[in-house]
What we know:
This protein has three domains: 3-54 and 244-322, Beta Barrel (conserved putative lor/sdh protein from methanococcus maripaludis s2 fold), CATH 2.40.420.20; 57-64 and 162-240, Beta Barrel (Elongation Factor Tu (Ef-tu), domain 3); 66-159. The chain is 39% helix and 27% strand. The chain has seven helices and 16 strands. A hairpin with a 3-residue loop joins strand 14 and strand 15. Helix 3 runs antiparallel to helix 4 (111-156). The radius of gyration is 34 Å and the shape is elongated.
Amino acid sequence: MPKNVFLPLVAALAVALGAHVARAAGLAPVTLDAKAISAGQIRVARLIRLTASPRISAYGFVLDPGPLVTLAADVVAARSAAAAASARAALARSEASRAVHLYRAQHNISQAALQSAQSTLAVAEADRATAAAQLGQLRTKMLADWGSTLSTAALSGSAPLPRLEKGAAELVEVSLPLGQGLADPPAEASATTPDDELVQLRFVSRAPRAAAGVAGESFFYLMASRASAPIGTPLSVALSASTGKSGVLVPRSAVVWHQGEPFAFRESTPDSFVPVPIPGAFVTEKGYFVPEGAGTLLHPGDRVVIDGAALLYSAATQSRVPVTSAAKADDRDDD
């Protein structure tokens, strides 16, 4: 629309604003007469119910598997030390029991020999307890850092550890934005490297903690090694839920943005349009999908503005009247 037509039309729409109901994030409902609706070429369409799989944009980061491999080796060494300590404690326990028996049977050994056997047992038991505690600490750390799936693989040498050790595969931590979650993470996902190379990811397990600097839920994925994504490379990851959700599809032309939040104008009467926030919507190829659920303000059968939403937005924002310091002073004078 030419600028010399657009600006006067916005002004006309602002003047045509009628009675307003409660505002949404500072946007006022807009009431227009038939002439203004025709001049603004405002068209509406009815929303229908459909099913779509949510697609979430997530953050990826190529991890260094070295700490996992090193920790697994430490656990194996600690396990061997604990087993050796247990064996020494068992032997010392047997020797101490034999010494007690011999000492009580007509003092066949000296009291000093008995005390030596008992002291050896006490030291062996202390060593066994220390080794067991160290092993438990390492196991707890491994589970806390890597989860049960990767911990088991690292300790047993099963997949995907051999590929990680050989450098044939890379481990990727994928983190969701804060406030979003996936009950069933997809078995496969796609990611884009900084040089726009598209790569495929294969699900390994849930991460036991959020990634550093990211508060959302995290997952571990496996990726074939490539020169464009060395350790430490950030990735843009796209995740699709395995199960579809019911909702409505809002065309892109119907969506306006206000203070970083998407809105659509719903027709409440033939001449009145209410701005409705759609914060839970996710982008698809055809528009913004709004899943059904608690707090959803758009439903199947609702009529939304698909042409002229920008004009309504301009009118809705121009209708806000700020309270000036002079107005506040007048209010104080009236008190």
